[in-house]
TrEMBL record:
Molecular function in Gene Ontology: orotidine-5'-phosphate decarboxylase activity
Swiss-Prot/TrEMBL GO biological process terms: 'de novo' pyrimidine nucleobase biosynthetic process; 'de novo' UMP biosynthetic process
Keyword set includes Lyase: yes
Classification via Pfam families: OMPdecase (PF00215)
Top-tier EC class: lyase
Function field: Catalyzes the decarboxylation of orotidine 5'-monophosphate (OMP) to uridine 5'-monophosphate (UMP).
Name the UniProt record assigns to this protein: Orotidine 5'-phosphate decarboxylase
InterPro entries: Aldolase_TIM (IPR013785), OMPdecase (IPR014732), OMPdeCOase_dom (IPR001754), RibuloseP-bd_barrel (IPR011060)
EC number: 4.1.1.23
UniProt keyword annotations, A-Z: Decarboxylase, Lyase, Pyrimidine biosynthesis
Keyword hit for Thylakoid: no
Highest taxon listed in the record's lineage: Bacteria
Length: 54
């Protein structure tokens, strides 16, 4: 599934999980692309993801 932080657009992903849901489902690694790379402030977007999973 696509990993999308809570409140992010689904974009072209059919199945999505938040980072927390993915970790709770057993993921060891998360690949998060557009929600960070295309954010107006990528550092802030990354910090929000880290805060969500911390």
């Amino acid at each position: 599934p696509g990993i999308r932080p809570a409140g992010s657009a689904q974009d072209d992903q059919r199945r999505i999980l938040t980072p927390r849901q993915a970790l709770d489902a057993g993921s060891d690694y998360l690949v998060i692309g557009r929600p960070i790379s295309q954010a107006a402030d990528p550092a802030k977007a990354l910090a929000a993801v880290v805060a969500e999973i911390a």
